[in-house]
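C-alpha cells please, single chain.
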Amino acid sequence: MGDDAMLLIDAAAQSLRGGKRLRAAFCYWGWRAVIDGNAGAPASPATAPGALRDADAEREIISVAASLEIFQSAALVHDDIIDNSDTRRGQPASHRALEARHGANGWAGDGDAFGRAAALLLGDLLVAWSDDLLEQGLEGHTDAAARRRTRHEYAAMRRDVTLGQFLDIAEESAFAVSPGEEHLARALRVATYKSARYSVQQPLTIGAALAGGTEAQLEALASFGYPIGMAFQLRDDVLGVFGDERLTGKPTGDDLREGKRTALIAITRERLSAVQKARLDELLGNPGLDAAEVAALQAMIVETGALDAVEQLISDYAVQAETALESPHLAASAVAVLRTLAVAATRRNA
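Here you go.
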C-alpha cells in the first residue's frame, strides 16, 4: 500500500512497545488455573488426552493473551487523544508522534489535526488486529463450547471498557450536578468498568473460558480478579497525582490537569470546606497547572486524609482477593503465581 501506509504500521508497532503486560499474564494464568486444576479430573472435550497437543494449547493461549495487549494499545491510543496527553511510557503519545511525522515529511495542512485523525484510525486498526489475533487463537480449538464462551467473555470486556471510558469522561462534567455524597460511588463505578473488570477480572475469565473452565472456576477467578482490578485502578489514581515522572512516563500530577474525578478526589472533596471545594474545582482540570498549583492540590489530598483512605481501600481489596484464592477449584501452582501478579498490580510505582 506504499510508504504512506507504512507510517501507520510503524506507529502501531511503536504503540506496542513497553508496558507491564499484566493483562496477558492474568489471561495466561487464568488458563493455567483451570488446565492445571483439571489435570486429575475426568476428561472433558477440552482436557481429553490427544484433544490438543501441549504446544498447540500454548500457542492458542498466547495468541489470545497477546490479543488483549493489542486491544490495550488501542485503548491507550484513544485515551491519549481524549485526555490530550502528550506522552505515553516516556515517549510521545501516538497522536503527537504522528503529528511530528506530518511535519518532518513537509506535508500541507494542520499537523495537530492530522495527528489526531491518524491516531483515531490507528486505534481502530489495533482493535481489528486484536480481533484477528483472538480468532487465530481460537481457530484450531476443538471445544466449540469453550470457543463460544471465550468470545462471549471477550465481547463483554470490549463493551464494558468502552462504556467505562465514556463514564470517565462524563464524570468530569456530571460531577457538577451530582450530589456530593454520591461522588465516591460514581468514581468507584468508573473504576469498575474502565479498569477493574477490563484489566484483571476479564483477562482471567477469558483465559479460563479458553481452558473450558466450569462456572465455579470462572466465578472463583472473577471473585479474585475484581478486587485486584479495583486495587490496580486505585493505585493508578494515586500514581496519577503523586507518581514520579521518571518512573511513570507521565508528568507528575497529570490526572489533576486532566480533571480526573477519581476516588481520591471524591474523598478529598467531601472533607473540604465550601471555600476549599471551590478552589479544588477551580484548579482541577486546568491543563496549565504549574508546579505550585499541583503541590497545593496534592497537599489538600494528603491533609484531608484522602490519600490514607485510598491506601486503606487498596489494602481491603487485596484482602478480599486473597480470600477468593482459597477456592478449591483452582490449581495451587497457578494460585501461587496469581498472588505474585496481584502484588505487581497493586504495589507498584509505575
